[in-house]
Amino acid sequence: MKRIFFAAAVGFLLLHTRSGMAEVKPGFEVGLYAGSMKADMGKTAVLSGTHTVETQTRDGQVYGFRLGYNADPHLGFEWDFGGSTTPYDVTLFDNVFLSPGDPKSDAIVSEEKTNAIFLTNLNIVLHLLKGPIIPFITAGGGGVMTIDKASFAYNYGGGVKIFLTKKFALRLDFREYRAKLKDNIEQIDDVRPGGVFIGRQWDYSEDLKFREISGGLTYLFHH
């Protein structure tokens, strides 16, 4: 155990002796990341007493791209775009068929399913220290999107950049996303060979919450 602590201390000191060689400097940076997405949402709501809407989601993986610009060693800006395998499903039920003992599937009058979500953001990044190990905090806004719907979202979080060379750094991030989704689902009244008969559109809303933990590599274009 003592050897582990000693090795960690030596590694930390060696990195800091190179602080003049490896640190955030003015210029652009670009990176790729991958990680996991925790989806903390899902609701059941009764609409006008006659119908019920149910939303469901599950955790997934996330992959993305970041492009940043560091104005100075402390202040940076970045745009990112990512996709996640987190699904988002919406089901509309007719309450007449939701009585106890009846199969729930018999009450379904419409379903919308998606197997992915997308996120894009413009953030401010504040680097808290100089040197080869740099913790940072970040916050900003953008959007959460599925194939047919989009909502404004804000996010906040932080992480650390660990320089491996003068221009390559390992980056670890934690982000929390919040959004208010307002959408509708169309009631399918009948399906015939001649087409689908759409009935009323039912409006619903939900607070979307995602937590992202990711890691990746970033390359800095400073001189």
Quick structural gist:
By secondary structure, the protein is mainly beta. It has one helix spanning 2-17, and strands at 27-39, 44-47, 51-57, 60-70, 75-84, 88-94, 108-114, 117-127, 133-145, 150-163, 168-192, 195-220. The chain has one domain: Beta Barrel (Porin).
Please tell me about this protein's structure.
The chain is mostly beta strands and 223 residues long. The longest helix is centred in the N-terminal third of the chain and has 16 residues. It has one domain: Porin, CATH 2.40.160.20. About 7% of the residues have low confidence. 26% of the residues are buried. The chain is built from one helix and twelve strands; from the N terminus they run H-E-E-E-E-E-E-E-E-E-E-E-E.
Protein topology:
Blueprint (H helix, E strand, L loop, with lengths): L1 H16 L9 E13 L4 E4 L3 E7 L2 E11 L4 E10 L3 E7 L13 E7 L2 E11 L5 E13 L4 E14 L4 E25 L2 E26 L3
Antiparallel strand pairs: 1-4, 1-12, 2-3, 3-6, 4-5, 5-8, 6-7, 8-9, 9-10, 10-11, 11-12
Quickly give the structural class. Answer: mainly beta
Uncertain residue segments = 4-10, 12-20
Fraction of residues in helix: under 10%
Fraction in beta strands: over 45%
- CATH class category label: Mainly Beta
The overall pLDDT average reads 83
CATH topology: Porin
Number of strands: 12
* Strand line-up across the major sheet: 1-4-5-8-9-10-11-12
Summarize the main sheet: 8 strands, antiparallel, barrel
The second-level CATH architecture is Beta Barrel
Domains (count): 1
Net shape: elongated
How far is the first residue's CA from the last residue's CA?
Answer: 41 Å
Counting copies of identical and different chains, the oligomeric state is: single chain
Determine Rg (CA atoms, Å). Answer: 23 Å
- Total DSSP helices: 1
**What pattern of helices and strands is seen along the backbone?**
HEEEEEEEEEEEE
